[in-house]
Amino acid sequence: MNKITQTKNTLQGKTSIKDEFWGHYIRLVQDVVIPYQYEALHDRVPEAEPSHAIANFEIAAGRRTGEFKGWVFQDSDVAKWLEAVGYSLSIKRDLELERRADEVIELVGAAQQPDGYLDTYFIIKEPGKRWTNLQDCHELYCAGHFIEAAVAYYEATGKDKLLNIVRKLVDHIASVFGPEEGKLKGYDGHQEIELALVKLYRLTGEQKYLELSSFFIDQRGQEPNFLRKEWEDRGQVTHWSGKTDKTDLAYFQAHLPVREQSIAVGHSVRAVYMYTAMADLAALTGDAGLRQACERLWQNMTQKQMYITGGIGSTHHGEAFTFDYDLPNDTVYAETCASIGLIFFAKRMLELEPDAKYADVMERALYNNVLGSMAQDGKHYFYVNPLEVWPQACSCNPGKHHVKAERQGWFGCACCPPNVARLLTSLNQYIYTVHEDTLYTNLYIGNESVFTLGGQEVSVSQQSNYPWEGKVQLKVEPDAAAAFGIAVRIPSWSKGFELTVNGEAVDTAAELEQGYAVIRRVWNAGDVIGLNLPMQASRIYANPKLRADAGQTAIQRGPLVYCLEEADNGATLSSLSLNGAGAFSESFDASLLGGAVIVKTGGFRVDEASWNGELYGSTKAETKPVEITAIPYYLWGNRGSGEMKVWIRD
Amino acid sequence: MNKITQTKNTLQGKTSIKDEFWGHYIRLVQDVVIPYQYEALHDRVPEAEPSHAIANFEIAAGRRTGEFKGWVFQDSDVAKWLEAVGYSLSIKRDLELERRADEVIELVGAAQQPDGYLDTYFIIKEPGKRWTNLQDCHELYCAGHFIEAAVAYYEATGKDKLLNIVRKLVDHIASVFGPEEGKLKGYDGHQEIELALVKLYRLTGEQKYLELSSFFIDQRGQEPNFLRKEWEDRGQVTHWSGKTDKTDLAYFQAHLPVREQSIAVGHSVRAVYMYTAMADLAALTGDAGLRQACERLWQNMTQKQMYITGGIGSTHHGEAFTFDYDLPNDTVYAETCASIGLIFFAKRMLELEPDAKYADVMERALYNNVLGSMAQDGKHYFYVNPLEVWPQACSCNPGKHHVKAERQGWFGCACCPPNVARLLTSLNQYIYTVHEDTLYTNLYIGNESVFTLGGQEVSVSQQSNYPWEGKVQLKVEPDAAAAFGIAVRIPSWSKGFELTVNGEAVDTAAELEQGYAVIRRVWNAGDVIGLNLPMQASRIYANPKLRADAGQTAIQRGPLVYCLEEADNGATLSSLSLNGAGAFSESFDASLLGGAVIVKTGGFRVDEASWNGELYGSTKAETKPVEITAIPYYLWGNRGSGEMKVWIRD
């Protein structure tokens, strides 16, 4: 156990988002997603599979009879809903919603066992088998989600009922797991409680939570391997598929002690949840080994295993990473939850160190993979976020069955929609970080915030028309004149920028500090920072080692990756190629799915009429010039089933 | 049942291959494959998994005790070996080999049950369950292979012991299956017996065999569906994986009556074995509905679902076809056995109708997919024949685990190597067809043959240096001068040809007859036909609907498709592109894997050193001119593990 030191930079002040672009999506979560999910949890959505999640709690609480149904980790859906409710209430009080949440929390409390244990699967179905299959059964994972919910709900409402439930639960867990003689030296197959315990520590200041989180992280991958031993003790069976040959420890990131890991492997959501907790602990404990591991894993993941959309996970087999530079566009996984976890990890790295590279990836994942997962109605989602879709292949080639051409309704394993809900309702937490009296602006999302900087309370308001325009205004209002720094991120996509304070140019020749332009001065009330990041559609190329994108070009404008759709360009998108020298024209189309900048450029289309119809032939088909239309990736799949392609021949 | 009419064109005369190129491979089968397989069947190959196939027969015969081991269709390996031995003995008598085969046949006879039943799995393991799981258990499939073996062995040796075994077996089968009251209205999950019964009919002239074959073909896909009913009767379980949701009838080509099928679907080997029998029956019975179905299925398969290498089957899920124009190069299946079955089907279509398009596909599959499946040592094989390989992806991306970068030793499911063995030892049967006193030359493989044409016995000898040169000489020696036709196929790849008789040009302006140049005249002893098919490496393009090959070019020279290998061109083959206007230089390299024409051309390589190392960037990497070396596809993977690519950016 490393010495626990108090964190320097976790108090971020308070930020309220006031942003036209994101406001729409946050309201969608509040007005549609949270109520819809509430109904889904209560099995009252006719078109969705019954969740049975609330029913399980009612049975566990002895309020009704019946069997446990749903996934073994079904409880976590209730927790993720409560967490999103917490964030939502902190944005806008809603008494009816709060009453519903209180009722659910009361039910959760009623289901909790006298010793603090809480997991309806084992309470109802296998009461004698608690903590015997950590690998598959997710008891600690569910506990982690309840902890996150309790912290969010307490911070929003000041109500501590759920907080007390999870503290009692954690005390129980600490009586079962730990370094002491007779306790389990184990950890969950699905990381989550580790980052949740850090949140509980930050809220309560109680060191025991941090110690338990560190225990789980430190123990992972140690020999003798807990998951392997547990599997042997169970008779080499899994919860899912009976007898197995071997436990694939890399799938669980339990193949090596975490400090020895350098390559992102295994189930990608588990991986990024773990890295998030590692970065948290590195920040809180100053553990250099953990920090270095985080830096190595970040580097590997974002420089060798990440799609241009901020998606991670190249295969649906195990929803997992594969290996360096293996980023197929059509058999991709790029799960929504994995990109959300990547954003969690990026935020923790920004808290460790103000380096814009972390915010660049955060922005990339947020505006593309994550935002694109959600339909404009808030009720349909992509679980898998492909970069190339041929709808017929999704239905007729089993290797692409996991890829869908249109967003689906609530899932049997409904992890992604509640994860989107909790991210968007807590998006205010991702905009700024503070390091040593400097406020770092990581995301350009309109907001009003209050921080303590230079010994003063400072109001900061940010305005922009991002992601369509790169003009950002930051108004600074200290209670009294004070010296501190304000840093604005210069995104990696920007080809130049203009920076002013009160209309006067700031010397932009000054070197950027790890991707930020930092202004250190005495600030007076009403000072205004103007940042202009000119946005223009431009060509992006992939590392030549990235075989799937060879000879192809992507279009990006500001933070948004673009794509071609059949709706605009006709079928057989593979027949299109860009004119290598062609300019892009950009225009805002208010009629396109809520309004968006569309990009047009000259290109070529193979003329199918010039081909003789044979499967193979020696006379090349002719090409003819065409206009190619690209739309932001996040909007794809909203106009019926059709082909889509991010990388285009050039 | 359709009226049975005697076939007009099945007596092909006798052909002995005398060919340097194929002679090598045929000797490899005789000297290495057949002896090796004999040892494997006897569990005496230390490096291979025990086959247990002979042991199963010994147990079934009561000669030793033990359990049945291996696949439920393990018996077929013994049958395929005996079939290959038959063909081999017809090429060259070998007393020791014949003694071994007789011994095996004696054992097979000893295992046969008094009522004629023969399948060691059910004899040993589930004696009460005969004929209860036709879908999975392949009893008729194994019977089919024994029938093929018996015909081949009888034709080579005149020995009828195995023939009598299978006739007794077929009589037993006919007592179980058939249109009569009380018999099963079923068929095998894996087609094979249908084409085998046609061979038995051709040998014996006994109509009952043809009727049974027709019964199986006619019954397939009829409602109520036999396979579905059987599955329900079994309690909805399969032999392989317990309870299943549904029987996927298309996998078994049992989704529709065969005469209503138009699209190649399901397991590709089963499909082409069935189409082969359908074409046989169409030829023998004159059934127009069957023939039209064959033509539709041929057209769909070869014009919409075939790789340029003659591979079929786009997915390893079910080793199956997917849908039109879905031909991914890297997640491909293209099983060796499927291309062999495609050759079987092509031969039957050539017997139905002299159209060179069937021989073009036969040649394509033989010289590329099939020949490439075998290592130069005869002991290593590809089961899957990809068109693009990145070895690391084969081991680290589970979606490509079925693709191997190097040929493997004998397989657990050893279907491909014995299938190659029986095809190559019977290759003499694929060179010619005879229609109405015209001899059609389908393949350019050196041979000496005897036919009856124009009422005379005619010796024909063919010589060429194919596939390296397109100069072919056919010497015609009728016993006495006689009028008949000789047709030479003008391959679809040839851009022109010269044809002479006794050195004098034949009018090549005459229209080809369905792809053949036909010379009808009075032939005298010593007449010599000279055919010159100039071979030059050239570019081949794919139909624009074939998305996987968009913007890419393949190189073909004569019948051989070429590929790039890492061994010649370095790693990251995706970084290479052809110079669109570049010429090809060709040279015979005697040192390359037994000697081959290699093709070189100018191209470009992305210069990795000019890339800044980022995963994505806005500055395109530079390219530099390089020389690109292509080798025949069939030789790939013989120089260690490395990348390979057939389609190259242009």
From TrEMBL, chains A, B:
Residue ranges annotated for the Non-reducing end beta-L-arabinofuranosidase-like GH127 C-terminal domain, each copy included: 539-649
Superkingdom, taxonomy of origin: Bacteria
Biological processes per GO annotation: carbohydrate metabolic process
Residues of the Non-reducing end beta-L-arabinofuranosidase-like GH127 middle domain: 438-535
Pfam families, alphabetized: Beta-AFase-like_GH127_cat (PF07944), Glyco_hydro127C (PF20737), Glyco_hydro127M (PF20736)
InterPro entries on file: 6-hairpin_glycosidase_sf, Beta-AFase-like, Beta-AFase-like_GH127_C, Beta-AFase-like_GH127_cat, Beta-AFase-like_GH127_middle
Domain Non-reducing end beta-L-arabinofuranosidase-like GH127 catalytic, chain residue ranges per copy: 17-428
Name under which the protein is recorded: Glycoside hydrolase family 127 protein
Organism name: Paenibacillus typhae
